[in-house]
Amino acid sequence: MKSNQQNGGSFLCSWSGGKDSYFAFYRAVQQGYKPKVLLNTLNEYGDKSRSHGIPKELLEQQAKAVGLPIEFIETTWETYEERYIAKLKELHEKYAFTHAVFGDIDIESHRAWEEKVANAANVKAVLPLWQGDRKELVEGMITAGIKTMIVSCRKELADSLLGEVIDGSLIKKFEELGIDACGENGEYHTFVLDGPLNGTTIAVDTGSVKTHNTYAFLDLHRTTFQT
């Protein structure tokens, strides 16, 4: 696995609320980095995450579950990079981290962007999942105890995937449907309910399915904690 090998620093985690950001966070901790803060990007209305459609209050409960503060940006796609860099600089001053952790796996343009914004804030980008085998990464998440639910996907996959928790049998279904195991081609997005770094499990109530363009989103309700 190719990644930044300088460990022992502190980090901000770029946090989607989904499996890849959680697993990257987990691996960074395993590699000796110290977590300081999570950063999520919301839509311009400030109520849901821009990419996954996860309500802000659920992201806040995820942060409580892993024992970290979470910071937010409200932005359109047009102002995304500008606001991301500005926020990263602001948080670098506030939390004094040395690295920014991202969950991308093998898309070079994503890595280039992450290194660009990290450099602009005078921190180093770390990609703990970089160049990992996609199926092996998902299997590693399951083995580590990361419980993650599919909360959005391509419309044609909604009946098969929405609301499902990823396990070995679902990976087999991915293969049958011709879906990338990690959803790296945009087939689906997830919300993490539990994991090895959690102090509590998040219980989610699901509602109706809403569609926007070519994507379907599962309506998620306010969570409660279980001990």
From TrEMBL:
Record-annotated Diphthamide synthase domain positions: 15-223
Superkingdom per UniProt: Bacteria
GO molecular function annotation: diphthine-ammonia ligase activity
InterPro entries: Diphthami_syn_dom, DPH6/MJ0570, Rossmann-like_a/b/a_fold
Cited Pfam families: Diphthami_syn_2 (PF01902)
GO BP terms: protein histidyl modification to diphthamide
Matching NCBIfam families: MJ0570_dom
PANTHER family documented for this protein: DIPHTHINE--AMMONIA LIGASE, DOMAIN OF UNKNOWN FUNCTION 71 DUF71 -CONTAINING PROTEIN
The name this protein goes by in its record: MJ0570-related uncharacterized domain-containing protein
